[in-house]
């Protein structure tokens, strides 16, 4: 029959596994779960290796002991104060970027609709830079980044119109909004002192060097709230990949789902920018990698997040080690890799399937 028979006699569709426990039943897509498990194992292995690597080389076992506060005090300081927070920032921000990109690409049906392309990253960056060079210091960059991303999203959504959330109209409007915020950021940097400009510079290119611990904790808390929300929205976004009439016929509240999805993407993008800066190309590549790994079924929220975390962690490691002792910001590394990928998306023949 092509299905999987469970102990209770239920039949799972081909490619799926039906798990049951005390009356609860969960239908799992085999390929998606295998891809997620493989990415998670790869992340753990890469994180452990990067934790031990560096100018002060440690063995993986000594690095893990130092992460738990055991062993040489110098190793404990090196791992807990320098390496571990940076790895955590890379994993959390990459995961959030990947989830936000998957939400926006699915909502618009367009692979170019990522937080960086439609202006959310530039809006968050402009407000974060303003908190350093143009407004009182009591307004922290993470809070200002959230306000900036929300402002950019409201402008893009309002100017694009309700129907503009599908196709290129929303993308083009978002590009214009992002260009305005980018110009404002450059104007503020040009008219401020050199010390303030140097302090704000990492927000303009994307960097994980010496990220404030408070911003990382805020990102972790926001991700803990937004990820279950995104998983819930994925069930509604799946039928919205077809026409609006089909989605409404299946009982999906299209307008509310669009607003909720955009709000979740804004929250995730703003919190990510507040930690890593505008590294939006991760949100472009991670969902596409996730769809390839999952066989393009459903909305791969979790796999997109894991792929984004892997991309961010790898890009940060490459920027720190390839040209050592010179450090290349993670935003520059992702731009070098993501730029040709963006051109490939624009120039290749459109695929017959849709998001």
Account of the protein in words:
Pfam families: FecCD. It is a multi-pass membrane protein. Belongs to the binding-protein-dependent transport system permease family. FecCD subfamily. One of its GO terms (molecular function) is transmembrane transporter activity. One of its GO terms (biological process) is siderophore-iron import into cell. With 355 residues, the protein is mostly helical. The chain has a single domain, classed as ABC transporter involved in vitamin B12 uptake, BtuC (Orthogonal Bundle). The protein is 69% helix and 5% strand. The protein has helices at 30-52, 60-67, 73-108, 120-133, 141-160, 168-190, 194-205, 213-240, 244-249, 254-276, 281-294, 301-321, 330-347, and strands at 4-5, 11-12, 16-21, 24-29. The strands form 2 sheets. Strands 1-2 form a two-stranded antiparallel sheet. Strands 3-4 form a two-stranded antiparallel ribbon. The chain starts with a strand and ends in an 8-residue tail after the last helix. Residues 1-9 have low confidence and may be disordered.
């Amino acid at each position: 029959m092509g299905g999987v028979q469970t102990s209770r006699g239920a039949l799972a569709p081909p490619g799926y596994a039906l798990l049951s426990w005390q009356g609860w039943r969960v239908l799992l897509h085999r390929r998606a779960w295998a891809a997620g498990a493989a990415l998670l194992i790869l992340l753990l292995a890469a994180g452990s290796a990067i934790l031990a690597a560096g100018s002060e080389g440690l063995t993986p076992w000594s690095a893990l002991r130092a992460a738990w506060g055991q062993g040489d005090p110098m190793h404990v300081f090196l791992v807990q104060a320098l390496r571990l927070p940076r790895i955590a920032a890379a994993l959390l921000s990459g995961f959030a970027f990947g989830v936000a990109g998957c939400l926006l690409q699915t909502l618009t049906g367009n692979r170019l609709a990522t937080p960086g392309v439609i202006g959310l990253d530039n809006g968050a960056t402009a407000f974060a830079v303003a908190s350093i060079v143009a407004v009182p210091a009591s307004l922290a960059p993470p809070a200002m980044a959230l306000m900036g991303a929300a402002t950019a999203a409201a402008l893009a959504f309002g100017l694009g119109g309700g129907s503009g959330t599908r196709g290129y109209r929303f993308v083009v409007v978002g590009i214009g909004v992002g260009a305005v915020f980018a110009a404002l950021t450059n104007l503020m940097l040009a008219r401020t002192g050199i010390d303030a400009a140097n302090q704000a510079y990492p927000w303009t290119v994307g960097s994980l060097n010496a990220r404030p611990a408070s911003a990382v904790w805020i990102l972790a808390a926001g991700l803990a709230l937004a990820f279950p929300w995104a998983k819930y929205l994925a069930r509604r976004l799946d039928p919205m990949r077809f026409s609006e009439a089909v989605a409404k016929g299946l009982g999906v509240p299209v307008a509310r789902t669009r607003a909720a999805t955009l709000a979740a993407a804004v929250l995730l993008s703003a919190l990510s920018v507040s930690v890593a800066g505008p590294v939006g190309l991760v949100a472009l590549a991670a969902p596409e990698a996730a769809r390839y790994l999952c066989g393009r079924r459903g909305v791969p929220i979790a796999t997109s997040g894991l792929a984004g975390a892997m991309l961010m962690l790898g890009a940060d490691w490459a920027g720190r080690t390839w040209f050592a002792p010179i450090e290349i910001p993670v935003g520059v590394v992702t731009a070098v890799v993501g730029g040709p990928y963006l051109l490939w998306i624009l120039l290749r023949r459109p695929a017959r399937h849709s998001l």
